Amino acid sequence: MTIENISSNKCFGGWHKQYQHQSRVLNCAMRFAIYLPPQASEQKVPVLYWLSGLTCTDENFMQKAGAMRIAAELGVAIVAPDTSPRGGEVADDAAYDLGQGAGFYLNATQAPWQAHYQMYDYVRDELPELIENHFPVTESRSLAGHSMGGHGALTIGLKHPDLYRSVSAFSPIVNPINCPWGQKAFTQYLGKNRDAWLAYDACELMKQASCDLPIFIDQGSSDNFLEEQLRPEALIAVAKEKEYPLILRLQEGYDHSYFFIATFIEDHLRFHASHLV
Amino acid sequence: MTIENISSNKCFGGWHKQYQHQSRVLNCAMRFAIYLPPQASEQKVPVLYWLSGLTCTDENFMQKAGAMRIAAELGVAIVAPDTSPRGGEVADDAAYDLGQGAGFYLNATQAPWQAHYQMYDYVRDELPELIENHFPVTESRSLAGHSMGGHGALTIGLKHPDLYRSVSAFSPIVNPINCPWGQKAFTQYLGKNRDAWLAYDACELMKQASCDLPIFIDQGSSDNFLEEQLRPEALIAVAKEKEYPLILRLQEGYDHSYFFIATFIEDHLRFHASHLV
C-alpha cells in the first residue's frame, strides 16, 4: 500500500495534506485529505473520520468547516475521504445524486455499479488500515459526516461499535429506505429487493442495535431537505423506543450548508474528543 | 441604488448573505457578500471590508477563512466584494493575473480596461455607500485583504486614513511597481509611464504618508510568491525609515493559501475590533 502526497499546507500549527493511492477495494485511484494536529509530531493521536455529502470530494470539509482550529487544540487528526470511486472507468450518472460523488457509503451489488462502488468496505477497512500504517495515529477512531455522509457515519457506526468510539452527524439521511435520495440510490446500487436495503438504513440498524455507541446529531430547522429527505423524527422515534443514547439538536434557522456545519463543528469535535481519550 | 438578495445562510447566530447590484462606477452587475453578526439585529455594527486575491470572488474568504465565528463574537460585520468587474461585456484576458478576477483595486486609464476596471473607486466610495444605506452598520470601517487584496487594502488605506480605522493584510503585494504581477497589471491598466504607477504602490505611499493608520501584516515564510512577488522587506525598510507603526509577522512554514489565513484571521479580527470600537 503506497500513498502519494499531492499537497501540504501548514494550518494551525499542524499540517493539512492530500494523498492519492490505488484502492484495492474500489479498484481505482482515490484521494483523501488528512489533518495532522501539532501534537502528531511528538505522539500518536486519535482520528476522526469525516464522510462528506453528495457532490463533495475530500476538499469541502477541510476547506469550509473550520474544524482544524479545534482539532489542533484537542490533538485529534481528521481524515476526509472522497465520496465515491472516481475516474473515467468508473460508472457514473448525469444526476448529482447517483454515481460519482454519490457513493452512499455502501457496497453495491448491481451492475454497472458493483465493480467500483464499495465505499462501505473502503471506509470501514481499507482507509483506516492505510491511515494507521502511514501516519502517527492510534487505533482510537470516531466517525462523523454530513447528509449522505451522516447516513454513512450512522450506518457504519451502528454496525461496528467495536471500531468507533463515537459517531456524529449534521443533517443526516437517517431513513434512506423511506426517502427519494435513498430509494433512488439503493434501487440502483442494491437492486429492487428492499430486504437488501435494511442493512444500510440507520433507523433499521438502531432498532436492532445492542450497542450504546454515543451518537450526536445536529439538524437545521430551515434545511430545504428536512421534510422530504432527512426526517430525523424517524430516528428519534426509534431511539425513544429503544432508549438509545441519542443526542439530537434542532438548530433554529440553520440550513443544509457548510455555514451550518462551521457554526457547530466545535461541539462535535469536543464530543468526539471526550470519547477518543 | 437597489440591491438584490441572492443567498442567505444563518451562520454563528448571524447571517451570511450575497447580493447583486448594478454598479455605476464599474458599469456592470456586481456581487458582494456580507456577514451580519447577531448584534446587528439590535444595533448598528462596524464593518471590516475584505479584499480578496487573484482569481477570487466574493465567496473564497467567507467560505474558507473561518472569520465569521470571531466576527459574531466581536460584533463586526464583514463585507467581501468581488475582485474585478465581471461579465461578457467586460474586457478580459486568458491569464489568471489580468482582467476578470484581477482588478488590482485601481482605476484603469488604458483601453480596453478603463471602461469597467475602476475597483479603487468602487471599494473606496460606491461599496461603503451601498452598505451603509442598506444594512445596520456604523461608519466605522476597517480594511483587510490577501495578496492582490492586501495590496488593495494597504494602498487604499494609506491614501485615505480618514476613511478607515485600521488596515491588515495577509501576504500582500507591497511593492507592485517592482514585481512581475504588478508590472504586468500596471502596464496594462495604467500604461507604460511608471509615474502613474506610484499612486498604487504601498511602499511609495508609505514613504509619503503623514498618517499613523495602524497596519498589521502576516506573511508566511514558505509562501511560493514571497521572493519574486511579495517582498515584504521593501515595506519593512520604508516603515523603519519613517518610524511608521507597522506590525509585520513572518509566520514560519506557512504558505499563500487560505489554510494560512484561517490560522491567523482571529488575530486580524481582534486587531481591527480594537480600533473599530
UniProtKB/TrEMBL annotation, chains A, B:
What one GO molecular function would you report for this record? carboxylic ester hydrolase activity
Q: Its biological function?
A: Serine hydrolase involved in the detoxification of formaldehyde.
Output this protein's name.
S-formylglutathione hydrolase
- Read off the NCBIfam families from this record: fghA_ester_D (TIGR02821)
GO CC aspect terms? cytosol
Keywords (alphabetical) are: Hydrolase, Serine esterase
Protein family according to the UniProt entry? Belongs to the esterase D family.
Task: Give the top-level enzyme category.
Answer: hydrolase
Catalyses which reaction(s): S-formylglutathione + H2O = formate + glutathione + H(+)
Q: Is the keyword Protein transport in the record?
A: no
InterPro entries per record: AB_hydrolase_fold, Esterase-like, S-formylglutathione_hydrol
Active-site residues, Swiss-Prot/TrEMBL: 147 (charge relay system), 223 (charge relay system), 256 (charge relay system)
